[in-house]
Each structure stands twice: as C-alpha cells, then as structure tokens.
Amino acid sequence: PLSLATNSSKENRIPDAATALKIAEPALIKRYGKRQIDYERPLTATLENDIWTVAGTLCCPDRKGHRTCEPYTCVGGVAVLKLRQRDGKILSVIHYK
C-alpha cells in the first residue's frame, strides 16, 4: 500500500514548466479573460521549493507605437499564479498593478 501511494503521488506531479503552463493558462484566462492573458504573453513558469510560479510578461507600447516587452520600459503589472508541484493545487492567483 505504501508504494501505491508513492506511485500515485508521482503521477499527479507537475514535472516541468510546460505542464505548469498547461494547468495555469486556463485558470488565468477564466479569471482575467483571454484578451488580458494574450496581451501578457509569453507566460513563464519557474519552480522554487515545490511551488511553480506562472507569470505573464509586462509589455507595452514603445515611443513608436510598437509592442515591446523590454524590462523597465513601462509601468504596470501581470497575472501570477502559484501551483504546488506535488499535486497541482492552485495556491494563489493575483494580478499586480
């Protein structure tokens, strides 16, 4: 029985960033809308201490009217979702301003 529990917990694990993104994206779209999340692409996923953090990218118009995602070029915030790696539970969802 102990080995079965161990195997089932491994099956539910979020093994990589691609899987974290597949889980987080629909939840972010449901909460903030497809248009908002599309504007924040690319989404990134980073793992630290068994917690996946999925975040949007802050992009804005540059002086020529083109969309740029260069750091420190605009003011604003992005959606951030935190997932527990071992079971995929969503721990928090927030949108910074």
How does this model look, in words?
The protein has three helices and six strands, in the order H-H-H-E-E-E-E-E-E. It is an alpha+beta fold. The N terminus is likely disordered.
Overall structural class, as computed from helix and strand content, comes to: alpha+beta
Distance between the termini: 48 Å
Q: Approximately how much beta-strand content do the residues carry?
A: 25-35%
Q: What's the story with the biggest beta sheet?
A: 4 strands, antiparallel
Give the tally of β-strands: 6
Strand order, largest beta sheet? 1-2-5-6
Q: What proportion of the residues is helical, as a percent range?
A: 25-40%
Nearest-integer average pLDDT: 85
Radius of gyration: 16 Å
Poorly predicted runs of 5 or more residues: 1-9
Overall 3D form: elongated
The number of helical segments is 3
| Series of secondary-structure elements, N-terminal to C-terminal | HHHEEEEEE
Task: Give the SSE layout.
Layout: H1 2-11, H2 17-32, H3 34-39, E1 44-48, E2 51-55, E3 60-61, E4 67-68, E5 79-84, E6 90-95
Antiparallel strand pairs: 1-2, 2-5, 3-4, 5-6
Characteristic key phrases:
two-stranded antiparallel ribbon; 3 helices; alpha+beta; 97 residues; elongated; 33% helix; four-stranded antiparallel sheet; disordered N terminus
Summarize the structure.
This protein is of the alpha+beta class and 97 residues long. Helices cover 33% and strands 27% of the residues. The strands form two sheets. A four-stranded antiparallel beta sheet has the order 1-2-5-6, with helices on one face.
